[in-house]
Amino acid sequence: MTADQLQSIIRAGLACEHLTVEGDGRHWYATIVSAEFEGKRLLARQRLVYATLGDRIKTDEVHALSMKTYTPAEWANAPSE
């Protein structure tokens, strides 16, 4: 899987205002900004993202995904990435 493919999968399941994905094909790092995170705690946000991946996590197609999740307001005030 490529970063572009993983990005497309996440975008297909979650409306993102900003999304970056980097990694080595097995270990991934994502920065995700979505209004769908409004009012949700960190674990609930991560579950939303993992839900977009479906069985890809269970089958080890995506081995590991580290993420930073922001609402649009949080992103506007976040340090530059």
Describe what this molecule looks like in 3D.
The protein has helices at 3-13, 42-53, 55-58, 72-77; strands spanning 18-23, 27-33, 64-70. It is α+β, with helices and mostly antiparallel strands and 81 residues long. Strands 1-2-3 form a three-stranded mixed sheet. A hairpin with a 3-residue loop joins strand 1 and strand 2 (27-33). Helix 1 crosses helix 2. This is BolA family transcriptional regulator. Belongs to the BolA/IbaG family. It comes from Comamonas aquatica DA1877.
Structural class: alpha+beta
Mean pLDDT: 92
The share of residues in extended strands comes to: 15-25%
Largest sheet geometry: 3 strands, mixed
Total helix count?
Answer: 4
In CATH, what is the homologous superfamily? BolA-like
Could you name the CATH topology? Answer: GMP Synthetase, Chain A, domain 3
Terminal CA distance = 24 Å
The succession of helices and strands, N to C, reads HEEHHEH
InterPro entries: BolA (IPR002634), BolA-like_sf (IPR036065), BolA/IbaG_stress_morph_reg (IPR050961)
Protein name: BolA family transcriptional regulator
Family: Belongs to the BolA/IbaG family.
Pfam families: BolA (PF01722)
